[in-house]
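Lecture 7 notes: from sequence to structure.

We start with a single chain of 69 residues. Read the sequence below before looking at the structure.
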Amino acid sequence: FKHTGLFPEQAVNWDFAAEKIRGAGRPVSVLNLFGYTGAATLACLKAGARVCHVDASKGMVTWAKENAA
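Now the structure, written as tokens:
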């Protein structure tokens, strides 16, 4: 695809999710379908959620794992 793997226009969504997770007052689990390279997954993890990252492409899952390392 020749993508950079990051879509900065989604930052508002990452911030929204993180705010909701931090404000939940309880443990939060997130299912990130079509997770691509993991930016949303990482934002949710950083906010304290337990996250299941799913993508049909093994390469994208590997890339997301590298981003999380």
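The two ends are 23 Å apart (CA to CA). Keep this in mind for problem set 3.
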